[in-house]
Fold this sequence. Notes:
The chain has helices at residues 32-63, 66-75, 83-90, 95-111, 122-150, 156-185, 187-205, 223-227, 229-236, 240-269, 276-300, 303-318, 331-362, 369-394, 400-419. The chain is mainly alpha-helical and 432 residues long. Mean pLDDT is 80; it is low at 1-23 and 426-432.
Amino acid sequence: MTEQTATTPDFSGSSGTPGPTGRRGPAALRHRGFRQLAGAWVFTNAADSALYLMLAVWVKELTGSDGAAGAVLATLGLPALIAPFLGQLADRVSRKWLLAVGNLAMALVVLSLVLVGGAEDVWAIYAVTFLYGAMGFLTASAQSGLVRDLLSDDELAGGNGLLTTVDQAFRLVSPLVGTALYVAAGPRAVVVLTAACFTVSAILLTRVEVVETGRPEASGSGYWAELVGGVRHLVATAPLGVLTVTMTLGMAATGFVNVAIFPVMEHGLGVAPSMLGVLVSVQGVGAVLGGLTVARVITRWDEIRAIAIGLAVMVAGMAPFAFIGLIDLPQPVVVGVGGAGLALVGLGVPWAIVGFVTLRQRLTPAHLQGRVAAATNIAFNLPQTLAALAAAALIGLIDYRVLVVLTALCLLVAAALSARVRPITQAPLGQS
Length: 432
């Protein structure tokens, strides 16, 4: 089974210096169970990255509607409504087996998309998208607890950074592969590939070696009181409460720009909707760099400063899209400027997200990991989904630049508020 040994304060060894075993790279990789989890994460993300953009493009081509396509991205966030139940489930059963069964079920659900024939079947795409989004919330809740069981406090930033790097690396590669496969062989080929990746991930998850903790004893407080235990912990634990608010503001604002992406492409950058995968891959370049460097940022400053810096970098990345199209420039220049902005957005996201997740994991006891992860995912995703739905309704009535500017302003406020939060002075939970 995986060793749970304490190490000296070195968030990851990700600077490339040899760790205690003489290996280079994140210290988290010393643990066999974490390596196995990361291997399964590779296939989960291959499936995720190939599918989620293709669904929006598919609906766009079937219906010709920007709003309908944007609503697909919004539907991904709707399962936030059931996230508390998913978090409670992750705290009550084996997280490893929950993830394995969930990935296998997702493979079967995705395969049902081969039956979609035309615009009259778009409802089925929305239904699968909802279930696919629910699987994302379940994965976040269960994986948070697994990572906490596998790694010590000092290894969390490096381990989370590595998983984020895997995630973002596939967002760099898979959309290109998915787009090429979509164009060459059609959406059903992407569906089959995605289902195969989910199946492999399920098999690999059954082999993860981990001593799981955190199964709660009966408290006598009732199911509904336990259900909201994650929210109570966030509110009562400084500085998680304040940072949850600032991150919620920033993440909610991105719902506006998620819907604006299609008019940004067509009217701002002058490229076809099918190029969405290419643009997301450009953003992925920055995100991979962010995942590789986040442990250094946290070590140099702390998790709180990483959040503030990440949000500020996202603001800088949004800025070009408020002006693209207003200045007469050659299209290659416009595309280049837009690509640079997307790369900056990609860089800032892992710094902010990993900073928050690492702090949350350190300050949360094992038996609450699933519910606290679910609570923060609700806080981040439900407002983002509501913002995306509002933007989908307005996108045909207002200039898309209004949504871009609104997003940048909200991120700027969130960055400023995060920067004012005092660093932690007390020892985190679990650290001796």
